[in-house]
Amino acid sequence: QVQLVESGGGLVQAGGSLRLSCAASERTFSRYAMGWLRQAPGKEREFVAAMSWSGGSTYYTDSVKGRFTISRDNAKNTVYLQMNSLKPEDTAVYYCAASGVLAGTRLPYEYHYWGQGAQVTVSS
Q1: Which of helix, strand or coil describes residue 29?
Q2: Residue 9 vs residues 19, 26, 55, 95, 105: alpha-carbon distances, Å
Q3: Which helix (H) or strand (E) holds 99?
């Protein structure tokens, strides 16, 4: 079982940046595709970004393209989400998740392991 722990959330003004980190407990971390999903108050959880197990493929939801970057360091069992030019509508709890769909996936139900979430609040 993979345990995931997010860090790096917080409060930032619109236009600012944050970097989320997600550390995995499992040495087989490199065998999973990784993703970031978010859930705003009163809304369903939605896909944000994903990266294949090798790091060769990345996917983003349209609203964050050009602003967010997902990356991974398999030697450190860690995945990152660099968030730039943040907007108030990016405010949400951000979840790191691992999927056995090695190419990466946009579908929340294809993620098998989840972190506890990190709050990101963007003020206007």
Answers
A1: helix
A2: 7, 22, 23, 11, 23
A3: strand 92-99
